[in-house]
Automatic annotation (TrEMBL):
NCBIfam families: PRK14109.1 (NF010707). Keywords: ATP-binding, Magnesium, Multifunctional enzyme, Nucleotide-binding, Nucleotidyltransferase, Transferase. Pfam families: GlnD_UR_UTase, GlnE. Involved in the regulation of glutamine synthetase GlnA, a key enzyme in the process to assimilate ammonia. When cellular nitrogen levels are high, the C-terminal adenylyl transferase (AT) inactivates GlnA by covalent transfer of an adenylyl group from ATP to specific tyrosine residue of GlnA, thus reducing its activity. Conversely, when nitrogen levels are low, the N-terminal adenylyl removase (AR) activates GlnA by removing the adenylyl group by phosphorolysis, increasing its activity. Residues 505-1003 are annotated as: Adenylyl transferase. This is Bifunctional glutamine synthetase adenylyltransferase/adenylyl-removing enzyme. It comes from the Bacteria. The lineage of its organism: Bacteria, Bacillati, Actinomycetota, Actinomycetes, Propionibacteriales. Residues 83-329, 598-833 form the Glutamate-ammonia ligase adenylyltransferase repeated domain. Belongs to the GlnE family. One of its GO terms (molecular function) is nucleotidyltransferase activity. The keyword Magnesium applies.
Amino acid sequence: MNRGTLRGTLVRAGFTDAEAGEERLLGLGDGLGDEAAAVVALLGRTADPDRALRFLVALVEALGDDASDLLGELVDDEGTAMRLLSVLGGSEALGEHLVRHPEQWRELRDPALGSTRPAAYAVRAGLLAAVGVPPEQREDPAAVPVAELDRAAAADALRVEYRRVLVRLAARDLAHHMGVDDVAAELSDLAAGTLDAALAVARGGVGERHAAARLAVVALGKCGGHELNYVSDVDVVFVHEPAEGADENEARRVATRLASDLIAICGDHTAEGTIWPVDAALRPEGKAGALVRTLAGHVGYYEKWAATWEFQALLKARPVAGDAALGRAYVEALAPMVWHAAERENFVPDVQAMRRRVVEHIPAGQAERQLKLGSGGLRDVEFAVQLLQLVHGRGDESIRQPATLSALHALTEGGYVGREDGQALHDAYAFLRTLEHRMQLDRLQRIHVVPQDDDVLRRLGRSLGAYKDPTGELDRWWRHHRREVRRLHEKLFYRPLLGAVAQIAGEDIRLSPDAARARLAALGYDDPAAALRHLEALTSGVSRTAAIQRTLLPVMLEWFADAPDPDAGLFGFRRISESLGHTPWYLRVLRDEGQVAERLARILASSRYATDLLQREPEGVRMLAGDLRPLGLEAVTAEMLGVARRRDGAEDAVRAVRGIRRRELFRTAAGDLVGTVDVTEVEETLSRLTDATLEATLDVSLRSVAAARGLDAPPARMAVVAMGRYGGFELSYASDADVMFVSEPVEGADPQVAASYAQGVVNELRRLLSLPASDPPLEVDADLRPEGRQGPLVRTLASYEAYYRRWSDVWEFQALLRADAVVGDEGLRRRFHELVDPLRFPADGLDEHGVTEVRRIKARVEAERLPRGADRRTHLKLGRGGLADVEWTVQLLQMQHAGRLEGLRTPRTLPALDAAAEAGLVDREDADRLAASWRMVSRVRNAITLVRGKAGDQIPTDARERAGVAALLGYGPGRSDELVNDLLRTTRRAHEVVDRVFWGEGS
């Protein structure tokens, strides 16, 4: 290959200094011969081709006459060549090591390097041999190894052997692309063997005195978890016991000396460099505590004094060196404390706060480039996984895996983490760990801040497989994975379910059937046997669904028990789960999304009304993840009209409309139950929802009747007038929709045809709304129309005008106070208001005869409509101080004064009452008493419907239903009598005002 061709080849292979590379290749002489191009191609697959060639030349020079073997291997064996060049291009430190110890290049000729991980015992034996431990001590597991080399020689030999093993590992990692978990596990085995060899050197320094103490080295953190980095502190604790017959004080002194020497042997700098620091700061009391403790001393500390984070630190504890039996005893003694740590008070908030403190203390200039501690970094994954393990691992031993990726896999398989989330988190963590390894491998330095130097970033990108645009690809990969980690850390680490599960006593996580029945009874379940059957149905089997249910149910049982009817809650949950259990999103939403599970538990155990809606529309569970505030009228109306117009038949169209109504009824009820909407919002929302339903159904009916009669266009305009509580925007969950129907022939239409058409539309509308369906019926009641049930269902505007001019009585004008034309043709609605406003708001007000007539009608209504045997004190609608008292009082004031006071011209009770107080028609204190009673009675009525699933105007006599109503109104367990007392007091005060203002008593 000539110079010009060679230089171009080097540039294409990724060399940044092709001229220097050319000189070095040519300097190798005939060793490469005609295979120089093949070697350049291999160099082009390394992280830094320039560096790899530079070290190759230095290695050849160091080998001298033996270099021919190396050059021949490069030409003849691509596997050896790739392993050697990958190490030389990927690590400055290991390249320098090979130049100092050039004979070790032969380690890379082993073909097994590409497929076989060395056994941990073999690695340990090689390290012990390097420091002069005799063969019989290396091979006998029961022997206590003692190094025979002096300390200085042993320390150098240990480093050389450590690097030799590291070279082999780096070659497999870089050339054969080992999984990051395999690399970390092998590094952990290498560290364990190194600690055992260092301890052997320490024993040699102590001499025969070492026999006075048994000493175990227990690794924590990454080494304990079999996931060590290339360069990392090795966190350990030391446990000692006196040897049989030895003095305790002497044993402690010897153990302390051995531990201190071990730390120094690993961390000291010698002619062969250093290995890594051994950090014992995680021991009891930290750096202020004794370096070594007996097993009893450790146990006593953790039983009495340990902080939450100290148990988290023990999660990965593993004996790695020294007395293996003592190390196992340590782990076995402390493991139960680790797996019950989550039951400590404020455990979850403490762990979360600790993670936040770590992020807050990162120097500002490093925050966005901190691979380990920063937001979206390695610690976010590790803390999230560890928190999930500590909370759920009490009852599930399958997730007690020490390594992060193994634990994440177990958590995913167990249903604690979603499959997609688990895979995304696995991929991100593997990438971040691999990037960390490549950064540290370069100079064998403990670094976690991603460098900003372009040359370094280029080398890192190439080491990860990005050759065309190494820096750009690296940046894109890193940003993507960091975003994923941030997102999933927030989702998993701050999952509300964690705190709730952590508060459950450990013995309650897994119970025998008898213990479960007893526990259910203690929680307040009336039928523990039935509850247990529901639990078995939900959790039996080995499916992923059952696994997730086993995660959810311990805490949901507690939430059901906090609500008025736990049995109904669990039964409802079973029915919902059977409907949706195989739907991919259902259990994932309960497990992952905010307060969904808690909201669902509260709703199911509090409200038959909401439970019935949810069983008819199980996908309503999705709503619980978001804002439960009502949608606006325009949005709901547009959706209903749109879905109706996409259906072919009228019945299908209205069923779709009613499905939307059912969904929005559940949204409203759920918001009411969890306290996000108040009573006036509920009633307005229910009224607006009725508007939208009637608007869409009227639209369907207009088109359906026209099509059935062969009409090209409707011959009449139509409008629906809301009356009564509907007209006042005061519908409750169980209210009918009181309405009147208005029609008007379009220009040029035959009046008889238009009238017949309008009647047909009303009949069709009522038929469609009464069709059997899975939503609560919307009863349309037209009895408040002129002439009541004897009169026509629909009238023209002219007919209404004629009737009211000739025949209407005071009660009909009073009914018109709440008339609000809300649905249908806008012009017709406006003209209806223009017709009735002078009638209901007369300029000269209501005369004395009219006032007397209103009072007479109210007295008759109360006498005729109060149910037989009903208690007038507590009847919510017709009782003293109830809804009728307040509303008739307000309406009397409107009929007397609305003609001259515009503020009274409203169909709504509370705004009219407020306007009356502003005008001085009623004292502010009296108005407040009336408003308070109206609000409380309305809330109680709605609560009764929510709890019982049907309307009621009396406080329930059933103790559980009464407790449910009280709970929805904010009264705690056992306080339903307080509700009754508060209701009686509030309505009594309102009735006193009614006596004065409406009946004129004492005035």
